[in-house]
């Protein structure tokens, strides 16, 4: 198994992980459309008890397509996560508890007793762009936007509504190291106020990651034992 292919976690730039609640800082004014919608996303996000969705992510290397992942992601309010892989590693399942420093991988569906634990710092279970599983959640992404408020406000940003979706384009510091400006396009569903797609570009406007979320189901009564390795 090649190290750069051994991405055994959640999918992407982010996953729709629920976990503990998120607060929207009261000092942020509502006079910017981007942050009015982020506030609405935080409010609706905190109402979710559990969810499941399919996630597809395309990674790029210097603007050229490199890796593709397709997973089914499930989580609940207690911070329990289950990731079932369709491509690559079909039949592999990963389990994680929010706040833990390790995750458990079941590599073979036909042999569920085979389990492997990895530190979340292990490069084998980071995304191709270097994110740990706890950095891929939608909560982490919303915090990222809030923390970049001043950077976003100082640079070109826009919002457009089209039917049941809102599309934001903005510049912020890079998602991993926070050193370089990058451009983001965020599509949000007005039906559930969750991301539909996130596109990330480097400072030279080359694509870095594209993540899309499909078949999202919210508050469907997922039991805790579904998340037990």
Q: How does the SSE layout of this entry go?
A:
Elements: H1 33-45, E1 50-61, E2 64-76, E3 80-87, E4 93-97, E5 102-106, E6 116-119, H2 138-147, H3 149-154, E7 158-162, E8 165-173, E9 181-189, E10 195-201, E11 207-218
Antiparallel strand pairs: 1-2, 1-11, 2-3, 3-4, 4-5, 5-6, 7-8, 8-9, 9-10, 10-11
Helix pairs in contact: 1-2
Provide a quick synopsis of the model.
Helices cover 13% and strands 39% of the residues. The chain has helices at 33-45, 138-147, 149-154, and strands spanning 50-61, 64-76, 80-87, 93-97, 102-106, 116-119, 158-162, 165-173, 181-189, 195-201, 207-218.
Largest sheet: 11 strands, antiparallel
| Top-tier CATH class | Mainly Beta
What is the assigned CATH homologous superfamily?
Answer: Lipoprotein localisation LolA/LolB/LppX
Secondary structure category? mainly beta
Share of β-strand residues:
35-45%
CATH fold type: outer membrane lipoprotein receptor (LolB), chain A
Q: What is the molecular shape?
A: globular
Number of strands: 11
Quickly give the CATH architecture: Clam
The topology string of helices and strands comes to HEEEEEEHHEEEEE
| Biggest β-sheet: strands ordered side by side in the sheet | 6-5-4-3-2-1-11-10-9-8-7
> What percent of the residues sit in helical stretches (DSSP H or I)?
10-25%
Query: Mean pLDDT score, rounded?
Result: 83
Q: Evaluate the radius of gyration.
A: 17 Å
Kindly give the count of domains: 1
Task: Work out the helix count.
Answer: 3
Uncertain parts: 1-14
End-to-end CA span:
22 Å
Written account of the structure:
The chain is mainly beta. The chain has helices at 33-45, 138-147, 149-154, and strands spanning 50-61, 64-76, 80-87, 93-97, 102-106, 116-119, 158-162, 165-173, 181-189, 195-201, 207-218. The protein has an eleven-stranded antiparallel sheet with strand order 6-5-4-3-2-1-11-10-9-8-7. Helix 1 packs antiparallel against helix 2 (138-147). The longest helix has 13 residues, at 33-45. The radius of gyration is 17 Å and the shape is globular. Mean pLDDT is 83; it is low at 1-14.
């Amino acid at each position: 198994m090649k190290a750069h292919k051994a991405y055994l976690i959640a999918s992407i730039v982010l996953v729709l992980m629920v976990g503990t609640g998120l607060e929207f800082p009261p000092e942020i004014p509502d006079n910017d459309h981007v942050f009015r919608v982020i506030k609405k996303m935080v409010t609706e996000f905190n109402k979710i008890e559990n969810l499941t969705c399919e996630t597809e992510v395309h990674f790029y290397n210097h603007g050229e397509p490199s890796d593709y992942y397709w997973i089914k992601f499930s989580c609940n309010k207690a911070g329990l996560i289950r990731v079932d892989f369709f491509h690559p590693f079909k039949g592999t399942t990963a389990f994680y508890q929010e706040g833990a420093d390790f995750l458990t991988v079941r590599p073979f569906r036909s042999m569920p007793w085979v389990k492997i634990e990895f530190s979340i710092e292990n490069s084998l279970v980071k995304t191709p762009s270097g994110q740990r599983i706890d950095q891929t959640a939608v909560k982490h992404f919303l915090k990222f936007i809030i923390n970049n408020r001043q950077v976003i406000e100082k640079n070109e940003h826009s919002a457009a509504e089209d039917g049941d979706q809102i599309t934001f384009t903005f510049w912020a510091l890079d998602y991993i190291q926070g050193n370089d400006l990058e451009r983001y396009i965020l599509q949000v569903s007005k039906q559930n106020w969750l991301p539909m797609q996130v596109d990330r570009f480097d400072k030279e406007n080359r694509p870095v990651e594209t993540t899309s979320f499909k078949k999202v189901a919210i508050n469907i009564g997922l039991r805790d034992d579904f998340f037990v390795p």
